[in-house]
Amino acid sequence: MFARYSSNLARSSQLRRFQSTLVLAEHNNETLNPITSNAVTAAKKLGGDVTVLVAGTKVGPIAEAAAKLDGVSKVLVAEGDAFNGLVAEAVTPLVLATQNQFKFTHIVAGASAFGKAVLPRVAAKLDVSPVSEIIDVKSADTFVRTIYAGNAIQTVKSKDPVKVVTVRGTNFEAAGTGGSAAIEKAPEGNYKSDLTEFVSQELTKSDRPSLTAAKIVISGGRGMKSGDNFKMLYDLADKWGAAVGASRAAVDAGFVPNDLQIGQTGKIVAPELYVAVGISGAIQHLAGMKDSKTIVAINKDPEAPIFQVADYGLVADLFKAIPEINEKC
Amino acid sequence: MSRVLVGVKRVIDYAVKIRVKPDKSGVVTEGVKHSMNPFDEIAVEEAVKMKEKKIASEVVAVSVGPAQSQEVLRTALAMGADRGIHIEVSGKDYELLQPIHVSKILAKLAQDEKADLVILGKQAIDDDCNQTAQMTAALLDWPQATFASKVEKTADGLTVVREIDGGLETIKTKVPAVISADLRLNTPRYATLPNIMKAKKKPIKKVAPKDLGVDTTPRIEVVSVEDPPVRQAGSILPDVDTLLSKLRDGGHIK
Q: What pTM, to 2 d.p., does this model score?
């Protein structure tokens, strides 16, 4: 038994020597975005040490939150005006300087708008081919991802010396928060970019849970007919503690803002319960929600493709069904 | 006045239900309807609009791919691009071609053609990578305006509204720059028959990656391509009460 233990130890220390991962933290200068925690879990699956890089204009509390994530051995912080708006042109040279000093084998971020903007830029600078939005880790160089709007699963093996990977948050559990990593300074440098200047953000304000983290998501489509009718869904969402999403048709028709869009080119969600209301179920929409645990479809068209993926279907006029549900909940 | 380079990719049409090959090597592309990647149509439209507003002097459409890629170049020309460049890559080489290769080709072309703007779609709907624009910008050391839903020319550069997770974000970039188009940037026009006829006379230059000094050795090996797990068929419920009791039984709602 002792021998087995020591051989395991030897193997794991060997792994540690060969694998080391840098995870880019995502945050809004106030809280750590939960997708970072999912990315840390993916990083742990790669084996080896996990370091989190936190860059921003105000990063103290973020660094502390990152240091508590299970499996993180070190947190590197870079604070300064250069990181206002976390523009890719400023974050990239910081990641390169950090990579230059520590020689990570993997650089990882969540596949959010932030991660998608920054990591390919980093990869090109390192002359490596990035791997987007992985849903599983087979080994340190082999990853699983979806192609064709989730209609095929591709397993790829990267031959590059550094693996640059974005992670689909919904496919990895959030890391626990019992850690106590050391917090150190990231390599110093002048990272201010004169190529791009962050001007402003207009964020959709909502008291409901965020779409990608919600346990229940209620989505409306073209069948909602107007933005005003979404109020029915908001009312129900408030009763259930749910987030509200939408199909592209509902966004394009101006019913709701674009950041509510679920699908191949919007957000990918995988809640416990997904309720599709007045959504036909186009390939592009299914790409964003078909990993949900339980899917409910409410649609008056019995032929709607959404019923092919729904666990429970209700063929009904949503303008009768939703008020009735609202009344009975 | 500036020159705009716009990238267009030929992909399986967005409405087609794809089929995975039995040998798990990829998806069936033979005999399947192809068209221009939807995000690239938006990129072309934006470039042509810039020309109509006299912000751009020339729009050059570029496609990397097999011989049939000329069809999407013709479509771009019919929408209003001035000329095309076809970088021919076919067969096994094309199957293993990745954004890193395409971005190297585009970066070299942007320099050779003295482009001031490169506009690409934010992602191709086949590989769903969402990488090429960012990588092209990195190789050129140009600013990147990804997921753009509004682009305005200002005196000293561009003001771009980007679609981000929580809403929208506005940035200013210098030019030259690389833009990646999101769905809501514009509504692409349909090419009219006279414009399709005219497009046949517009020039398309053919170039090989090696002419541009770009090595297209694959960096990634595709181990397998498989069907996603199939969901178990569900049931149609008779009324709201049954639905609510199912959801309560499942512990989803109280």
A: 0.93
